[in-house]
Amino acid sequence: MAEVKLMIDGRQIVADASKTVLEAALDNGIYIPHLCYHENLHPNGGCRLCVVKQEGVDGVITSCSTKVQEGMVITTKDELAEKIRKLSCDFMFKTHPSECTGCPKYGRCLLASISQYVGDTGRALRELKLRVTADETNPLMLHEMYRCILCGRCVRACGELRGVGALKFAKVDGRMRVVIDGDSLADADCRFCGACVEVCPTGSIRDKVDVFRDDIPREQALIPCSAECPAHISIPEYIRAIYEGDYSKSVGIIREKVPFPHALGLVCNNRCENNCKHKHLNSSLSIRNLKRFAAEHDEDKIWLDNYLKVAPRTGKKVAVIGGGACGLTAGYYLNKKGHDVTVFESKKIPGGHMTSGMPEYRIPTQAVLDEVKVIEDSGVKIVCNSPIKNAAELKKDYDAVLVAIGTSIGKKLGYLNKDNLPQTYSALELLQAQRLNQEIDLGQTVCIIGGGNVAFDAAGTLLRMKKTVNVVCLEKDASQASPDERDTALEEGANLFDSHSNEAIIGENGRVTGLQVHKINSFYFHPETRALVEDAIPDSTYIIPCDSIVFAAGQVTGLTDEFGLELNRFGYPIDPKTGKSEYTTSVEGVFAAGDVITGTRFLIDAIAGGRDVASLMDQYLGGDGVIDEQLVERTADPFIGTIDNFASIERHEMDIRPAEERKEDFAPVSTGFTCEQGTCEASRCLQCDLRLQIAGPKFWNDYAGAEGEEVNA
Amino acid sequence: MKNLQADVVVIGTGPSGLAACVEASEAGMKVIAFEKQNVSGGAANMGMGPLGIGTRHQQDQMVDIDVERAFKMFMEYTHWRVDANMVKRYFEASAGTIEWLEDLGVEFAGAYKYFPKSEATWHIVAVNGGIGRNGGAIMNKAMLTKAQENGVEVYYETPAKKILRDEEGKICGVDAVDKDGEEIHVDCKAVIVGTGGAGDSPEYMKERMGYTYGKDLFNIVIPGLKGEGIKMAIAAGAATTEMTVEKIYILPFSDFGPQSVPVTFMQPNLMVNVQGRRFINEEMMQNTTFTGNAIQIQKGAVGFSILDQKIVNGYKKKGLDVVNFVHHVDNIDDFEQACDDIIADPNNPDVVKADTLEELAEKLGIEDVDTFLETVEEYNDMCESQDTLFYKPSKFMKPIEKAPFYAGIFHPSGYGTLGGIKIDDKCQVLDNDWNAIPGFFACGTDTCTIYGDSYMFLLPGNTMGYCVNTGRFAGEAAAEYVDELDED
After folding, report:
1. Residues A650-686: pLDDT tens digits?
2. Quick check: B127 and A86 CB within 8 A?
3. Which of chain B's residues have a Cβ under 8 Å away from the Cβ of A217?
4. Nearest C-alpha of chain B: how many angstroms from A116?
5. What CATH number does the domain containing A520 carry?
6. A705/B154 touch (CB, cutoff 8 Å), yes or no
7. pLDDT tens, A52-62?
8. B175 close to A150: Cβ distance less than 8 angstroms
9. B135 contact residues in A (CB cutoff 8 A)
């Protein structure tokens, strides 16, 4: 569109002809007070704070609703305009509380800032305060409409910006007010997007305390799911793509942060769901299951071309020790940044815990290998059956080395096995044997020692191997494990011996024959010595007959000094400069990440660690360390409209195959969401990210003075 | 990570930080200021004006107060347990500061008392040419505008996080974080802290003063005052001081509703404690600090202000006994309606109404109803003669007779905290050995220990006055320090 020239406060301004006088002034750093105007909303010219003098025009004009014209001469600091602004301020304070004390918006209040600028703080008119009690009934948003000054921003945001219309103007007891268009926000088909909160200048409509974290930057805090995700996957965006039926786009968005969407969709511990805003309405979104749904319905792989693009080669060589999630993630990004990456895997297939440390029925080997294949296709070289003995030695042949071997050795409690009976295994040994088709001598009845999730992984696996399974643990009801995983295994037929303490593994002729145990009332671990302190039930010792023992008692790195790195007393590499386990180690150019520095954590933590260390290593190798990428285009329509009974749509759970059926094979316990379930679950998303599209308030004090120049940034 | 350079960094842009910004920039310093809120002015944006002693306004109004009388009065009040040099310097500078503000374009409506027994030291900023609310905001705007004209860069929504000292112990930088989480580092030669105390941190008030929020202290929360400046200064080696609360008394919930309710209950009528006895000469209720103190030491830290319908009717007809600028309404026509609304709201448990005194006592939870009835009877008798218990003037003695009876349940509260960072009268921050830390200055309520145990209400405008004046001292001293450093 054409440009026009005009003068504002003696300054020559060039502005697009589509702009209003207010927009042209603000764009050029000239402040004009405004309150009902908001750059994302249509002007309504109601507050009359933005009045200015136009030369040759009687009276004043509202700058928010007047388009710029060629040759216009505007004065913002006109006497009449200033008088009208003061009067306008007075009108607002007629109803708005005259005391700021106790107002949570204090210090961020647009009305207070404008009254400071205008130099009028009310009082000239007789007060007529609104007596409306606070409405705290909604779990997400608080209405304190006695603070409302009727600027109508919330009504316009909800109606014209969102297409929802849950708020409206109405006359109540003879006075105009902003009210909910229904008995409650839910009844008014509110989508709980928070646009009204975002545009409210006075704190009349606010987020309830504790909905968002206040210890991280606002932009992150407003999207709680992504903030909780260690890899900060853009969750609302990929859920939106699912709702739109574009599963490939959804996977593309996920892949911008993690190379294992399907694996995560199957086994992630979904911390994102802990803080999902929807939990305050009824329950959080089923985010992990949606991720799996998208991954399993991605036929077009529209992200693939961009995914396989790599930077020009830098000539730098990187070795990654360990082909698990962390090592492969780091490998993918380092290759993408132009470095030649070789991953050394000790086992016969890559994937780490994903292919050998968790049960097949939770995460099928083929699903993992398919995702590993994409990483290989991008140029990462994976060498299997290649254990590395010494990282420092390996560094001599490479520019950088990453140690990402995880915690791959299961602990066995030797004091229980004084006779060194051979039929004792760690849960990892069991899972690995099953998944990699290795021989393992179990007999028919197996006692699992331990009561965490890994114990029940082992139990489910053994049940599918047609074994009789006894889970023996200290905790009442195996409370260490997630109730789901525990109940799934118990349904399938595992026997639980809870509140049991182990004494010894019993054997005859070099074979395990039983586990000697006694019952306890309670126990704890001594806070200093970490030793077990138990309240045993007297004379309760007996023997559980069994043919083998599986320990699910934690995992360690298994590293020794032979590995060439300085270790702490638990076998974790440390950086001697800090004495802690960090991405850097005692050998320059040798990095470490994932479980090998954090201890056993979850898949998403390993991937996030892989991302972080890749960025760090890229910088070490001379790169900029930026690993962010955009794989797919997307738009987010702010006009979300209404959905019938939106607030009461219940969370969908995946259908679980009956225990009798599922224990007969190693196929996944659930077949995943149907298209109908997936779309409906995606529709529940509150789209918290839309709020970031809304422009923030403009304060007069932001317009004076320039920010400092940066030096040696 | 953004790296910046400045001579002086100011942390917080309330009246003390803004005054420091203006003074330091006037002296040619390059100043960067960090403000965690969106707007400048801090708590003072809801204040009305600073103290001045010996000003032109006082001369014009024939107000008889000078520095000597104010100083003597002040030191007697504080029993000399405060920094006399600081008090003297502040009082002596205060008249000049009023003129300095006028030079920045601030207009004053005149010098006023807060309540009848106080002195007319309160210089109220004119709003629309007269007395209005929140004139402090207009004063702060004038200082901010001047600072920005002088090239001071204010970073909003950017809390400072850490004050840095070099190996010699001199101030060398400040770390801050902006709203997007980006870290900002400033290399600087001096830093001035003025963050306004910890009035929004129940945890820190508990830690430092032992008050339990919602039990023996109901604070008027000014969002954002978390005591970060004090904590940052201590972390950087500053010695700390005793901290106090600038105490007042409030109806914790109804104070924020229609003002007819708190102003009526704050009239000098009968006030009793939970044991049913009087504990204060109610004339003192004008002095919100003294009354806050008296309520604080009662059982349950609570005081009940009792009214009958006749007293309310009298106020409606003839106006209130005592008014002040802060607690001020045109009339109390809506008193009964407002009380009924408050009583109907289950979240507002601080107003009670009853048809008999027995019922009122029961609703208030007065432990000894007979004592309460005796107290009322004796009080009513004294209304006929005189208050032989606490010597309240007869004009304030109105019997409690006609139903319905009303009671307001008052608790101690505070405008905010005072003190925390130890400074000398040049506003230099001292370490634990009383040595000034080179380049380190602080001002405003983070440092204000000049009242001793209780806010000095007799010289109103004191806190804002202390803030603006010490801000100026700190700004000047920081500029002098940097100049000397540059000369070396």
Report:
1. 999 999 999 999 999 999 999 899 999 999 999 999 9
2. no
3. 177, 179-181
4. 5
5. 3.50.50.60
6. yes
7. 999 999 999 99
8. no
9. 121
A425 located within any domain: yes
pLDDT 10s digits, B143-162:
999 999 999 999 999 999 99
The pLDDT value given to residue A124: 61
pLDDT the model gives residue A530:
82
Indicate the residue of A100, A104, A127 with minimum beta-carbon distance to B46.
Answer: A100
A46 has a pLDDT exceeding 90: no
String of DSSP letters for A602-619: -HHHHHHHHHHHHHHHHH
**Interface contact A209, partner B, CB < 8 A:** no
Residues 668-697 of A with CB under 8 A from B: 697
Write the residue in A112, A126, A707 that is nearest to B137 by C-beta.
A112
Out of A95, A119, A150, pick the residue that ends a domain.
Answer: A95
User: Would you say A261 and A255 are in contact if contact means Cβ atoms under 8 Å apart?
Assistant: yes
Reduced to 3 states, what is the DSSP secondary structure of residue A570?
Answer: coil
* Chain B contact set for A703 (CB, 8 A): none
Residues A480 and A506 in one domain: yes
**Residues spanned by the domain of A248:** 218-303+632-646+668-693
Q: Shortest Cα distance from B153 to chain A (angstroms)? A: 6
Is the per-residue pLDDT at A616 higher than 80? yes
pLDDT (average), residues B278-302: 94
> Quick one: tokens of B464?
């804002």
Of A67, A95, A123, the residue at which a domain comes to its end is A95
CB of A710 within 8 Å of a chain B CB? The answer is: yes
Q: What is the model's pTM?
A: 0.85
> Structure tokens of A483?
């109730």
Report the residue from A121, A216, A713 with minimal CB separation from B127: A121
Same domain? For A428 and A400 the reply is no
Delineate the domains of chain B, giving CATH numbers in brackets. Answer: 2-243+419-487 (3.50.50.60), 250-413 (3.90.700.10)
Q: Do both A240 and A319 map to the same domain? A: no
Largest CA distance in chain B: 79
- Confirm whether A156 is domain-assigned: yes
Tokens in use for A115?
Answer: 């009254």
Same domain, A435 and A532: yes
- The predicted pLDDT at position A713 comes to 33
Model confidence band, residue A704 (pLDDT cutoffs 50, 70, 90): low
- From A143's Cα to the closest Cα of chain B, the distance in A is 15
Alpha carbon distance A8, A19 (integer Å): 14
How close is the nearest chain B Cα to the Cα of A204, in Å? 14
- Residue pair A145/A132 in contact by the 8 Å Cβ criterion: yes
pLDDT of residue B130: 84
Least confident range of A96-100, A269-273, A369-373, B163-167: A96-100
**Pick from A354, A514, A324, A346: which is nearest to A431 by CA?**
A354
Do A563 and A543 sit in the same domain of this protein? Answer: no
The residue of chain A with its CA nearest to that of B48 is A121
Where do we find the tokens 């909303």?
A41
Which of B39, B152, B220 is nearest residue A699 as measured by Cβ atoms?
B39
The answer to whether A214 faces chain B, any CB pair under 8 Å, is no
| Contact flag B138-A121 (C-beta cutoff 8 Å) | yes
Number of domains in chain A: 5
* Residue A529 belongs to some domain of the structure: yes
- For B137, which of A103, A116, A708 is closest by C-beta distance? A116
ipTM of the complex: 0.84
Percent of chain A whose predicted confidence (pLDDT) is above 90: 84
What distance in Å separates the CA atoms of residue B23 and residue B26, rounded to the nearest whole number? Answer: 5
Closest chain A CA to residue B177: A217
What pLDDT is attached to residue A17?
A: 94
Q: Is A668 helix (H, G, I), strand (E, B) or coil?
A: coil
In this model, does residue A705 exceed pLDDT 70? no
> Does any domain span residue A388?
yes
Structure tokens at A706: 């320039």
CATH number at residue A161: 3.30.70.20
My answer on whether A426 and A547 are in the same domain is: yes
Q: Given CB atoms, is A312 within the 8 Å cutoff of chain B? A: no
Instruction: Provide the 8-state DSSP code for B254.
Output: G
